[in-house]
Write a structure and sequence with these properties.
With 197 residues, this protein is mainly α. The protein has one domain (56-195): Orthogonal Bundle (Tetracycline Repressor, domain 2). It has helices at residues 3-27, 34-40, 55-78, 88-97, 107-111, 122-144, 153-173, 177-187, 192-195. The longest helix has 25 residues, at 3-27. The radius of gyration is 19 Å and the shape is globular. The N and C termini lie far apart (52 Å). Keywords: DNA-binding, Transcription, Transcription regulation. InterPro entries: Homeodomain-like_sf, HTH_TetR, Tet_transcr_reg_TetR-rel_C_sf.
C-alpha cells in the first residue's frame, strides 16, 4: 500500500473510531451499529473489516480514544489557559461541570455501566480501567502544577470521585443540582477543603 493510500486508510479508521466514540458517549455501547457507523462516515459496512477485527475491537479502541480526547481537553482547558498555572484545578472543575453536547459526556460517566464486568468484553473493561487511570493521572498532574492547590494525594482521590459521582448523578437523574452543588463546594473558598482546591 502506497503512502497516500496508507494515510487515507488511517484517516478513515480514525473517522470510524471518532464516530463510534461519540455514539457510545451519547447513546451507550448498545447503540453502536456497524452498518450505521459506516454509513455516517460515508463507507460501506463491508469495508469495516479492513480496519478492525471485530465490533468488540472497535468498541475498545473507541473507548480508549474517548478517554485520550478527554485528557487532552482537560489539559488544553486548564494548564495552557493563557499560561497561568494558579487556579488550574478550579478551572478544570468548572470545565468538567460545564454543559456539553451529549456526545461529549465524560466517558467515565457515559460508559461506566457498559464497561462493567462481567457483561462487557475484556477489551472494553480494560480500556475503561486504563482510561479512568489516565484521567485521574491528568487530574493529579493539573493539581500538582497549581501552586494554590494544597490537597494531599488522598484528598485528590476524594475530590476526583466527588466530581465524577456528582456528574453521574446529574446525568442519571436529569437534575444538575448534584453537579452545581459539588462544583460550588470545590470552587468557592467557603470551606477549608474548598480553599485548598
Amino acid at each position: 500500500m502506497g503512502r497516500s493510500n496508507r494515510e487515507q486508510a488511517d484517516k478513515n479508521r480514525q473517522r470510524i473510531v471518532d464516530e463510534t466514540a461519540a455514539t457510545m458517549r451519547g447513546l451507550g455501547v448498545a447503540a453502536v451499529s456497524i452498518s450505521e457507523i459506516m454509513a455516517r462516515v460515508g463507507m460501506t459496512p463491508g469495508g469495516f473489516y479492513n480496519h478492525f477485527a471485530s465490533k468488540d475491537a472497535l468498541i475498545a479502541e473507541a473507548c480508549s480514544s474517548g478517554f485520550a480526547r478527554s485528557a487532552e481537553n482537560w489539559r488544553a482547558k486548564t494548564i495552557s489557559h493563557k499560561g497561568a498555572v494558579t487556579g488550574t484545578l478550579k478551572r478544570l472543575v468548572s470545565y468538567y461541570f460545564a454543559s456539553k453536547p451529549i456526545e461529549k459526556t465524560c466517558p467515565m460517566v457515559a460508559l461506566g455501566q457498559d464497561a462493567a464486568p462481567p457483561r462487557a468484553s475484556e477489551g472494553l473493561s480494560q480500556a475503561y480501567r486504563e482510561g479512568v487511570e489516565q484521567l485521574f493521572t491528568t487530574f493529579a498532574d493539573i493539581a500538582h502544577v497549581d501552586p494554590s492547590c494544597s490537597l494531599s494525594p488522598e484528598d485528590l482521590v476524594v475530590v476526583f470521585a466527588a466530581m465524577v459521582g456528582a456528574n453521574m448523578l446529574a446525568h442519571s437523574t436529569g437534575d444538575r443540582t448534584w453537579a452545581t452543588e459539588v462544583e460550588r463546594v470545590l470552587v468557592t473558598p467557603h470551606s477549608h477543603q474548598a480553599s485548598n482546591v
